[in-house]
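Quick check before the chapter quiz. The format below is the same one you will see on the exam, so make sure you can read both the input and the output lines.
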Amino acid sequence: MGSMGNGDKVIEEGKYVLLYLDQRGKWLVKVSKGREFHTHKGVVSLGDLVGRPYGCSIFSNLGERFFALKPTIYDLIMKAERPTQIMYPKDIGLELLRLGVGPGKRVVEIGTGSGSLTMALANAVRPGGMVFTYETRKEFVEIAKRNLSKAGLLDYVTFKEADAKAGLEERDVDAVAVDIGDPWEVVPLAEEALVGGGCIAIFCPTINQVERVVASLAEGRFADIETYECLLREILVRPGKTRPATRMIGHTGYLTFARRILERGLPDPP
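Here is the expected output.
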């Protein structure tokens, strides 16, 4: 998180590491002198990691070996403090690409939640861009700020504790991301905020929501309207017995994408 430098290679005081034991034992922990982390495999003295390179190993008092890895945005999202269901990386990845988010872009997010998508957006728009995120619930804003702080991305996010349905202040933004219960209510507002050709992405848990969203987009100045569902399945690789994992994260939601056009009159879908 930040430009490449010594801080990206060496563990500094106050930074977070992903403490890795095995596939089932991974913890996001803050490194500070004198701090200990207790696990079922013993106590790890986190202060001993200060000044050492990411990827190094450290032993607990019981002799169990752990590895101190540099957290990625994926790790920070999956280990984030979450009061509600987060948006999963499998959906976030497609959304970032379809929105065309990159360095210097200006993005409006409607529905901050715990800030999982906010983190990914902020990481993508830095160093010259900005994410303007709207959230009505103060407790969610505070949790999102803590998650963004852990990722070192607070400078790229403007938090707005307000109801987006009352109006968006931004104009000529490059993209809009929506994750609220009644997203069709903000489609006209997103249309006003988006620059011509700008993209919108709307996350909906149910088909009923998708139908209303697509109808709202088609009635406005939007084209290239498409809806997808992303499924991700882990493969357990074992010599001579590789197979799909028994469990998987199945349905999370539907992603609807569209692009802002300058004239109305989109033909009815076939």
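If your answer matched, good. Confidence is low (pLDDT under 50) at residues 1-5.
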